[in-house]
């Protein structure tokens, strides 16, 4: 069987993870890597892995007729133009989340994919986590009955650097978007309404960039279920990732992964190791599995498990959460278009108002 040739655009931390995972698959060949800051260090890294082409120009990869699929791992602001270009070139596409910070731009990218008839998988890797998949199975097969409550906790061990905070899109679009996708995945239902509250409790740098570091969001689903998500940018004990789905016949819950299952009991205390420290450890196998799934879909011409529709739905919920937090009230998903229009008009009027004042 002919190997699928892959090009990687963006060779930062996540791009390199995808390269190493693809190299584990016998059906794939990583043919080229592009990065704006490609230099001798990246060239040496690529040579160690047998990657023949390293370039600063992503167009070199898109124009290469030998490349079958592209992984887009560059900054979010580049995703939409790269998706359009890759689709027009007939390449299948894996794109890290979110597709963009704008629903209109995301829809443009999805339309380009539809017109070209290529595959697009969005990088919501947590769907491939072994624990969360088991919880979803319990919902799908009726083990816990009708879903009543979905609870998701997602807390990072350390806050990001200020340079990242400035361009992240905020806690709802950057961090909680994974949980919004997970809420849809676990509940098997769409979100109808979002109510978000946030505060700056960890570091004032978040407020300086119009963001929060601690947030709680409640959700209403179309099937009548309710959801609650809590996020924090700093959990001093490690990477805190837990979910629970409670239903009419019981519940299914996934706790944190730990380095081991040993529990030490003495007269003074009962102790165990802290949770795995960060996402690279906690979701290592999930990244491998999502890569396998994408390649398998190309090989067997079947729909990807996380497509553009999933990507845009998570973005819609994230945008509703941002608006809810700002407005101080629940936001229904079906009023987003009008609220976005009003927000744009207000933003356009502000400089003029300031000037006249």
What's a quick, concise take on this entry?
The protein is an alpha/beta fold.
What characteristics describe this protein?
alpha/beta; six-stranded parallel sheet; Dihydrodipicolinate Reductase, domain 2; disordered C terminus; Rossmann fold; 357 residues; seven-stranded mixed sheet; 2 domains; 15 strands; globular; single chain
Report on the architecture of this protein:
- The protein is α/β, with parallel strands linked by helices and 357 residues long.
- The chain folds into 2 domains: 4-118, Rossmann fold (3-Layer(aba) Sandwich); 127-282 and 314-335, 2-Layer Sandwich (Dihydrodipicolinate Reductase, domain 2), CATH 3.30.360.10.
- Helices cover 41% and strands 23% of the residues.
- The chain is built from 14 helices and 15 strands.
- The protein has helices at residues 13-22, 40-48, 58-62, 79-88, 103-116, 130-140, 162-167, 171-174, 177-187, 205-208, 279-282, 284-300, 308-327, 336-356; strands spanning 4-9, 28-34, 53-55, 69-72, 92-95, 120-122, 147-155, 191-199, 214-221, 226-232, 240-247, 250-254, 263-265, 270-272, 331-332.
- Strands 12-11-7-10-9-8-15 form a 7-stranded mixed sheet. Strands 3-2-1-4-5-6 form a 6-stranded parallel sheet, with helices on both faces. Strands 13-14 form a two-stranded antiparallel sheet.
